[in-house]
Write a structure and sequence with these properties.
seven-stranded parallel beta sheet; Rossmann fold; binds NADP nicotinamide-adenine-dinucleotide phosphate; 231 residues; alpha/beta
């Protein structure tokens, strides 16, 4: 990935703490859109000053198509898109607010669509690209009280497979990782640390993502890779 332009959305989130250093170690030129300054500060504490100085941070709400288009146009080219943005909310279906359902689809699916759409535009011009999206185990093994999460992540899988089909015959690929529970600061805070050694480490998931984002993964298309750790 040396010299390649890599866009990591959600790079300041919990998973980003593992993915960003791994991608920087490959010699890539990184752009990270963010919303909260506090998360940029948190990432800063996980990186050396030299690593941090190599990242271009851009304040951007990825639900605004004009903002996504500008972000990607400003990059000039996009060799790799790693779309980490996403999140979950819980609730029984018969009690779930329609507004909350739509917000979950915004966060998980619609950000993925916009980031993929505009990155693909560049990748098709360039004739090269790697797209890595993040689904969830819940996309293929849905569980109760997480219907909107499972449904929106299943849609991320479908979108990724559709892109893989559309880009057959090119050097552009799209694949999706399906994590179970990731060992992030937010999960430790919410669930304690008793089970944490069985969760997937961000650094471990980062290695899978790095391979999917590499030139070597040219023949892997539309894969959904379970990365479940020991749970
Ligand atoms: N954590 C887990 O156990 C787990 C398990 C399975 C799958 N996953 C998936 O893995 C991915 C990363 O999870 P995570 O734990 O790192 O989540 P996270 O800590 O909540 O990070 C999500 C990131 O997305 C950004 N984001 C959200 N909405 C945005 C928007 N409209 N525009 C721009 N940025 C936006 C957030 O930035 P701001 O905070 O600044 O808005 C944050 O940096 C997600 O797709 C998640 O669904 C996570």
């Amino acid at each position: 990935m040396k010299g390649q332009r890599v866009l990591i959305t959600g790079g300041t989130g919990g998973l980003g703490l593992g993915v960003v250093p791994a991608i920087l170690a490959q010699g890539a030129e990184l752009t990270i859109p963010y919303q909260k300054e506090s998360e940029v500060e948190r990432l800063k504490h996980h990186l050396s000053a030299t690593e941090f100085s190599k990242i271009r941070f851009v304040a951007a709400n990825l639900l605004n198509e004009a903002v996504v288009e500008q972000l990607i146009d400003d990059m000039g080219r996009v060799d790799v898109l790693i779309h980490l943005v996403g999140g979950f909310a819980m609730g029984k279906t018969h009690e779930y607010a329609y507004e909350a359902w739509k917000q979950d689809f915004d966060l998980n699916l619609h950000t993925t669509f916009l980031a993929c759409k505009h990155s693909l535009r560049k990748m098709l011009e360039q004739g090269y690209g790697r797209i890595v999206t993040v689904g969830s185990r819940g996309a293929v093994q849905p569980v109760g009280q997480l219907a909107s999460y499972g449904a929106s992540k299943a849609a991320v899988v479908a979108l990724t497979k559709a892109i893989a089909d559309e880009t057959k015959g090119t050097n552009i690929t799209a694949n999706c990782v399906l994590p179970s529970v990731i060992d992030t600061p937010a999960n430790r805070e919410a669930m304690g640390t008793t089970e944490a050694d069985r969760w997937v480490k961000p650094e471990s998931l980062a290695q899978v993502i790095c391979f999917l984002a590499s030139e070597a993964a040219q023949d892997l298309r539309g894969a959904t890779i379970p990365v479940y750790g020991s749970i």
